[in-house]
Design a protein that fits this description.
Helix content: 55-70%
Shape: flat
Structural class: alpha+beta
Largest sheet: 2 strands, parallel
Strand content: 5-15%
Number of helices: 3
Radius of gyration: 10 Å
Oligomer: single chain
Amino acid sequence: MKIMCDTNVIIDVLLEREPFVEDSYQILKLCEEHKIDGFVSASSVTG
């Protein structure tokens, strides 16, 4: 499965923003374990 991660998913984990941090962490963990393919837009990385 391929997913496009919104910038907020990454920010939620980095800043531990409640109530989203747990769900966002799980998404990134699935990407790290190669269970899903996660992508972010180029403008999210450079902006």
